[in-house]
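Whiteboard transcription, Tuesday session. T.W. wrote the structure tokens on the left side:
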């Protein structure tokens, strides 16, 4: 009798360990590939499901929306041609926000073509923002950008604190309105008193030093226009 009970217990244990996970699927585990401008972004998420992954080139960020039911981790492989973070031609840290809060992450793999990040989240979190220094912008072409070289001097002085924010903004606004500087058409919002993000001033300095391309500098100007800081 005792042997029968032990055998039944052992069978039950084997059933629970090996067969229950096969019968009850984990609906909160998701992996897949999302194409952005025909370029694949690979992801894997534990304890959640991905709703969408899209690129906001104006803000140099990749935005992930998700459903979560427990604390977990999202692993995402980002092609460098989609989004990257560099400084003086070397890899720099991404700025990662989870539901608006800055979050530490682990870069588990880096190659010449992509970077893989592992980002933790808490139960209930729904948005991950990965911000870099470069983002693919299919709406901006070099033919749409005309910037006189001498403006780089002004950008460098502004980045170094020699020109006030208001003076730089008014100067850029004048140059665009007078068609001395040409940038892609950008929708402008109502006037805003919000401060200029530091990353835009950093970009201006890097552009003045020849470390980033015109399109990356212009993306910062488009941010200022979109948010009503520059009026054109």
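and on the right, the sequence the group agreed on:
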């Amino acid at each position: 009798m005792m042997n029968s009970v032990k055998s039944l217990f052992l069978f039950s244990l084997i059933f629970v360990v090996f067969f229950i996970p096969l019968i009850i699927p984990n609906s909160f585990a998701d992996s897949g590939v999302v194409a952005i401008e025909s370029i694949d972004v690979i992801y894997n998420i534990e304890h959640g499901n991905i709703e969408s992954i899209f690129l906001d080139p104006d803000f140099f960020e990749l935005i992930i929306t998700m459903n979560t039911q427990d604390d977990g981790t999202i692993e995402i492989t980002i092609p460098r041609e989609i989004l990257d973070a560099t400084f003086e031609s070397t890899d720099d840290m991404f700025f990662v926000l989870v539901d608006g809060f800055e979050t530490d992450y682990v870069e588990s793999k880096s190659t010449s073509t992509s970077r893989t990040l592992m980002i933790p989240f808490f139960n209930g979190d729904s948005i991950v923002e990965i911000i870099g220094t470069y983002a693919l912008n299919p709406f901006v072409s070099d033919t749409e950008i005309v910037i006189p070289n001498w403006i780089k001097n002004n950008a460098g002085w502004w980045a170094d604190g020699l020109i006030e924010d208001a003076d730089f903004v008014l100067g850029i606004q004048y140059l665009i309105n007078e068609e001395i500087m040409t940038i892609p058409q950008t929708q402008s919002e109502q006037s805003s008193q919000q401060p200029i993000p530091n990353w835009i001033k950093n970009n201006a300095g890097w552009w003045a030093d020849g470390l980033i391309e015109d399109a990356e500098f212009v993306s910062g100007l488009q941010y200022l226009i979109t948010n009503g800081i520059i009026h054109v």
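Someone added at the bottom: Confidence is low (pLDDT under 50) at residues 8-28.
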